[in-house]
Amino acid sequence: MTTTPGAADWRAANLANWDERVPIHTAGSFYDLPAFVAGRNTLRDFELSEVGDVAGKTLLHLQCHIGLDTLSWSRRGATVTGLDFSAVAVKAANGLAAQVDATTARFVTADVYDAVQALGGQRFDIVYTGFGALCWLGDIARWARTAAALVAEGGFLYLAEYHPVADLLGDDGATVENDYFHRDPIVVDAPGTYADASAPMAATVTVEWRHGIGDVVSALTAAGLRIEFLHEHDHSHFRLPAGKGIPQVYSLRAAKTA
Length: 258
What we know:
CATH superfamily: Vaccinia Virus protein VP39
Protein name: Class I SAM-dependent methyltransferase
CATH architecture: 3-Layer(aba) Sandwich
Number of strands: 9
Helix content: 25-40%
Keywords: Methyltransferase, Transferase
EC number: 2.1.1.222, 2.1.1.64
Radius of gyration: 18 Å
Shape: globular
Structural class: alpha/beta
Distance between the termini: 44 Å
GO molecular function: 2-polyprenyl-6-hydroxyphenol methylase activity; 3-demethylubiquinol 3-O-methyltransferase activity
Organism: Streptomyces cinereospinus
CATH class: Alpha Beta
CATH topology: Rossmann fold
């Protein structure tokens, strides 16, 4: 574990890595694109319940990767916009949108911190952020301000994310391997991805950050959003099965009121 010399370096390293992940993810079994094209939904039951009816609403998905969750919301009637910093991922998402005839979906290439400008100041009924997104952002307060600026009056932010407690544990689900309070950049040099650990890659260095739930909630409230709920779930983590007796994912909804 080391620290990075500057913001430009960590962003470039992460972008190069995610660009390489896209063809691995679109070709492999983890995301199972044929099943998705055939109608599979990628959203968890609790997400559908907590977000509620999206028919006729505008929804922005920040850090959308190849757009499966974005398009799953589209299938439920939302007019969706997916945003990701990887042009390679956005190209794949647009290809999937064409395959599933998602005529009310669009995808935009931009850094999440530049989303307000990239989207021309548009605001959305729902701003959605899904699993495995926040660890790639060093400035959680800036993320919260950006997300809040994108929520329309009367709308809300919905976040479903891996629980930081689960991320402290090793693959056995019992051994504590990391420090919850560590906030410095975490540099990892490892081949492959969570979808295929053996996949050959050239850009193997990534930089991540650990954000506690208190950090996230405090950032959103400071940005002017009102927390409606925070729920912790014993839902399967991508590394750990359910039933471990620990919170593995969490979800929250934060509203913008006049």
